[in-house]
């Protein structure tokens, strides 16, 4: 068997999301197309980097750095994974790009559309790869949902969608430095979790063709607690199609795990989507008029057991995002076909308008 091509990752930041990403990409998989190597880890302190290595990638032998800049300057790093809070993404992406590195940066890519455009302009000038790490779009279940909606048209023409993400956080109990409370870090429910509910809305109402030019008409409201946006509700209307949607998100309460969090209606039926959270869809059910029999779709099929789901060899679901990114870079691409630059800008522009109407402003805007 021929050896797999190798991609060497530089991990920037040692928080929870970085740990999930690293654990997932190092899983042994029979269908793997790429060998992932953790080449470098950058942290604010060497001790934190070493602890991260010992805990989450003990079989690897990465270089441990006490700064992010040293990861960017490491000649053996092929791709930098940025797992810092939203408010630092612009800074970290621009520094990595300036060093000539390919970048996979966590969602939401930036605080606003202006920053996203500047990142992509810089990447174009340096001829490097940059992609927003919206793992939801890479998930096979999500991609199958898009195919059934817009190619197979299993529920006819889509007319509307309801989508929600609720994740309870006791903000007032957290220190001012928490990413849930610090506005300089991009605190707020919309950029953190609402972006997932919004992603389903765009898939349903705009189709599976990222980077559309039409901006919907939006009516939005936001609530704040201790100066932080905690709840967002937005209504979307597309004049060209007449499609409508309602998207909500909140950090004030938890949604029921494993229950329906989105419903898409069409002229010939509807689809219910469920999972442990909207970021981790586990199944959807198609109710089509012509069949009269609900059809349940889940992935992978062999792991489905009633309400219990397990993902052997797929971890939490970062493997598809990481592999697609690695293959893009290995093949000389400069942006992702699944999450292209135009798509990231488009969703940031929509969130900018929601925040404008909701009176949510971040420092420096």
Characterize the structure shown.
The protein is α/β, with parallel strands linked by helices and 365 residues long. The chain has two domains: 6-135 and 318-338, NAD(P)-binding Rossmann-like Domain (Rossmann fold); 140-312, Dihydrodipicolinate Reductase, domain 2. It is built from ten helices and 16 strands. It has helices spanning 16-25, 46-56, 68-72, 86-98, 113-126, 135-138, 140-150, 189-206, 319-330, 341-358; strands at residues 6-12, 35-42, 63-65, 79-82, 102-106, 130-133, 158-166, 217-225, 228-237, 244-250, 260-266, 269-277, 280-288, 295-298, 304-305, 308-309. The protein has an eight-stranded mixed beta sheet, covered by helices on one side. Helix 2 (46-56) links the parallel strand 2 and strand 3 (63-65). It starts with 5 loop residues before the first strand and ends in a 7-residue tail after the last helix. It is an enzyme of class 1 (oxidoreductase). Its EC number is 1.1.1.179. GO terms for molecular function: D-xylose 1-dehydrogenase (NADP+) activity; nucleotide binding.
Which keywords apply here?
single chain, 365 residues, alpha/beta, Rossmann fold, Dihydrodipicolinate Reductase, domain 2, eight-stranded mixed beta sheet, 10 helices, 32% helix, 27% strand, EC 1.1.1.179, NAD(P)-bd_dom_sf
Rg, Å, rounded: 20 Å
Through-space gap between termini: 54 Å
CATH topology of the largest domain: Dihydrodipicolinate Reductase, domain 2
Question: What structural category arises from helix and sheet content?
Answer: alpha/beta
Task: Give a short synopsis of this structure.
This protein is α/β, with parallel strands linked by helices.
């Amino acid at each position: 068997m021929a050896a797999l091509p190798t991609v060497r990752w530089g991990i920037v930041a040692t928080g929870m999301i970085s740990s999930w990403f690293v654990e997932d990409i190092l899983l042994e998989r029979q269908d793997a197309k790429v060998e992932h190597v953790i080449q470098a880890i950058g942290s604010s302190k060497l001790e934190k980097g070493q602890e991260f290595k010992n805990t989450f990638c003990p079989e690897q032998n990465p270089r441990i750095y006490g700064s992010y800049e040293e990861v960017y300057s490491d000649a053996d790093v092929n791709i930098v994974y940025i797992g810092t809070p939203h408010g630092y993404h612009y800074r970290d992406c621009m520094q990595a790009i300036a060093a000539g590195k390919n970048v996979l940066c966590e969602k939401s890519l930036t605080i606003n559309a202006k920053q996203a455009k500047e990142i992509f302009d810089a990447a174009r000038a340096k001829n490097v790869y940059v992609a927003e790490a919206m793992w939801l779009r890479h998930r096979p279940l999500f991609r199958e949902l898009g195919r059934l909606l817009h190619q197979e048209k299993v529920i006819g023409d889509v007319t509307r969608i309801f989508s929600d993400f609720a994740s309870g956080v006791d903000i007032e109990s957290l220190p001012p430095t928490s990413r849930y409370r610090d506005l300089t870090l991009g605190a707020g429910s919309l950029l953190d979790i609402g972006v997932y509910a919004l992603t389903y809305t765009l898939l349903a109402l705009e189709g599976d063709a990222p980077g559309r030019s039409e901006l919907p008409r939006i009516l939005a409201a936001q609530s704040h607690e201790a100066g932080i946006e905690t709840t967002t509700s937005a209504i979307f209307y597309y004049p060209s199609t007449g499609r409508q949607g309602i998207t909500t998100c909140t950090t004030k309460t938890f949604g029921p795990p494993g229950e329906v969090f989105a419903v898409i209606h069409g002229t010939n039926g509807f689809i219910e989507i469920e999972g442990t959270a909207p970021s981790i869809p586990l199944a959807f059910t198609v109710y089509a008029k012509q069949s009269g029999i609900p059809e349940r779709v889940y992935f992978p099929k062999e792991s489905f057991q009633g309400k219990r789901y397990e993902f052997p060899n797929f971890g939490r679901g970062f493997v598809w995002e990481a592999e697609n990114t690695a293959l893009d870079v290995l093949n000389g691409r400069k942006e992702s076909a699944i999450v292209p630059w135009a798509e990231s800008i488009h969703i940031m522009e929509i969130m900018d308008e929601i925040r404008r109407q909701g009176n949510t402003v971040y420092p420096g805007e």
